[in-house]
Amino acid sequence: MSRRERAAQEAAFLRGEVGVDGRPADDAPDKADVEAGKAREQFLRGKTFVGREFLTWLLWRSEAGEPLVEVDGKPATVLFVDRIALRGIAGETTEVVAKGVAAPYSALVRRALDSGLLVHSARLRLTHDEKSYELSVDAEFLDIKSARLPELLSEEEDDRLTERLALAEQASALLDALLRSFLPLRAGKRWSKEAVPAMKAWMRGEAGEGRQARAG
After folding, report:
1. CA 210 to chain centre
2. CA angle, 104 as apex, 183 and 202 as ends, to 5°?
3. Residue 4: pLDDT band by 50, 70, 90 thresholds?
4. How far is CA 183 from the centre of its chain?
5. Between 102 and 25, whose confidence is greater?
6. What does the longest C-alpha to C-alpha distance in the chain come to?
7. pTM of the entire structure?
8. Mean pLDDT over residues 20-43, rounded?
9. Is residue 83 a contact partner of residue 107, using CB atoms and an 8 Å limit?
């Protein structure tokens, strides 16, 4: 590009006729689209934070091994297994990943939670109606990333497909039921007055207080 061409381009930029990339300003993103994108990003960030709170609460509640919800009139229990990832937005450590059979309930994980991190993703084992489902879940959209379903009983291929779809729907229904049990608590006064202090006590190894709050 010659000196004259560069001068002409700079003059067009100063007049607002082109953007920094040299494209006509008319091709620049619309302000409304930009604002909509920012709003969506903020919404997803907020949703992710609530998802992390949900998974952290679920980890605390599940340690006792007691049923947490009822689905179709039958109790469902939750156990965190294998891999768990914690994330935060400040501090010296912003991410911790722990692996192992008992890793989610380890003292290391509890200390990381007490420092301000929250559960971002985990592997859950849901037991319901004598069936066991293993789901990989993350906090961003609270969707199921992968799943190990109960063993199929049907022999015909079409029946097996129908059975697999039914089991997948049941796994999703179990996760939804757990989330529905959490949201009223999170939106109410008991969250800050009872649940958070009890979880902090559990993180710090003050088992008596945390256990009493779970029972309540």
Report:
1. 23
2. 65
3. low
4. 14
5. 102
6. 79
7. 0.74
8. 54
9. no
d(CA 44, CA 141): 8
From CA 31, how far away is CA 148, in angstroms rounded? 45
Token pair, residue 129, equals 């109606």
- The sign of the torsion formed by the CA atoms of 180, 186, 188, 193 equals positive
Q: Which amino acid is residue 131, in one-letter code? A: K
Whole-angstrom Cα distance, residue 149 to residue 216?
A: 32
Length of the chain: 216
CB environment 131-140: b (16+ within 10 A), e (fewer): bebbbbbbbe
Q: Measuring CA to CA, which residue among 103, 147, 108, 141 is closest to residue 124?
A: 147
- Segment 145-171, tens digit of pLDDT: 999 999 988 878 888 899 999 999 999
* Residues contacting residue 51 through CB under 8 Å, at least 6 positions apart: 138, 139, 140, 141, 142
Decide if pLDDT at 140 tops 50.
yes
pLDDT digits (tens, 9 = 90+) for 10-30: 555 555 555 445 555 554 556
What pLDDT, on a 0 to 100 scale, did the predictor assign at position 52? 94
Is residue 77 within 8 A of residue 66, CB to CB? The reply is: yes
